[in-house]
Amino acid sequence: MKKIIMLLTLLITTGLFAQDIAGSWYGQIVFPGGKLRIGLNIKKVEQGYTATMDSPDQGVKDIPVDKISYENKVLTFNISAISANYKGEYKDNGFTGTLTQNNMDIALNLGRTPIKADDKAKERPQEPKKPYPYYSEDVTFKNEKAGITLAGTLTMPEKEGNFPAVILVSGSGPQNRDEEILDHKPFLVLADHLTKKGIAVLRYDDRGVGKSGGTFSGATTNDFATDVEAAFAYLQSLPSINKKKIGIIGHSEGGTIAPIVASKNEDVAFIVLMAGTAIPGDELMMLQNYLLGKTNGMPEEELTKLGVINRKIYDVIKEEEDQEALQEKLYTVFNTDMKPLFIANGVPEAQLIPYINMQLKELSSAWYVNFIRYDPTKALENTECPILAINGDKDLQVAAIPNLEAIKRAAAKSGNKKVTTKKLEGLNHLFQETTSGAPAEYGTITQTISPVALNEISSWIIKQVK
């Protein structure tokens, strides 16, 4: 699911003002989970401006900005994939503004002076340091279907041999090969652990991220599945990889993608679902919205009201095929039901227009529509290889019990006797040991992945490849 604070493509409305805002702008958001530096690079063009965005603390550069609005000394933009929007006023040679995400406001001021990284980097004791006690190589492979080249890292116990292997598939949102978030590099830690156990690991930058080609924006879960298929074919071509012992590990949305690939390819030896989504997208979001809202202290009455509105929104997405009609019906729901709720909670009506426009753009996007409509059950029922599904019982994004039970039902229906499901106590969506499971804790927790989760994965895989 969406990583909280993960920076994605900005969707911004076009406008003009006399002040030339071209050039680089720098800011930093501070939240309970830590700090995140932001860079906005604006260029002047004939029709107005174009821009890209950087997230240096996440190792991401040149995120494309689709449009930009600057009018009457006000800069606005939205980040549709994480339900966030920004509004800043130009004064004192900079922008003073607010980033709003999930009804929470975070101050974000933009200026011309670069912000340096903290001198004291956050302690991440599990992160491996070079030189590694195994072979590591940067590689590329081609997705012929999409016509793009993906870049990643292959680690093996030794340079030569015939090793079992896994492909790591990240969660939703543009992720680099380490699935980097809030100074954590979960896939680097997982790859290090597995390689030391004798298993080769291929992890790669998502399309349009890092050194991978292609465009992330506009792609759906099914498109990302073709990237995994290309990674699988690449591993099969290597003499150092045992072609009969290649599996897939997917985290969050990656756990939805793994069964899609495995259900179509009998050569997939096994799959591991780390907080994999196994219930329909609309049901998942209804539950996620409730759990996150409750953890953030939202009153039950308000949670109920929002739940009714969200149900209307998801029903429209599921039922309306025409894109124009879809946006019109979504607008009606927001204007009729959501708008009065925000106004009642003190949100100025003038601020709601860019928010509604941002929401309409996100909710009608190809990825989101596909996500809400998609039911993972069929792919799970058609997956015949061994499956390990693990979830943390503190996961507020992909709740453990509903998803693990859905996997059990799919296995029972298909007759797959090689399915193992485990609920891991005290772990969150990132499989960190936690107290509340709230996303705000992700960055404050020193641990990247609990040893319990790491050992569950490696010990199960070793049994499969013996």
From TrEMBL:
Locations of Basic and acidic residues compositional bias?
115-130
GO molecular function terms noted in the UniProt entry = hydrolase activity
Q: Which InterPro entries match?
A: AB_hydrolase_Est10, AB_hydrolase_fold, Hydrolase_4
* Tagged with keyword Hydrolase: yes
Pfam families this protein is in? Hydrolase_4
Alphabetized, the UniProt keywords read: Hydrolase, Signal
Task: Map out region (Disordered) in residue numbers.
Answer: 115-135
* Signal sequence interval, chain numbering: 1-18
- Serine aminopeptidase S33 domain sequence ranges: 190-283
**Protein name per its UniProtKB record:** Alpha/beta fold hydrolase
Native organism: Flavobacterium litorale
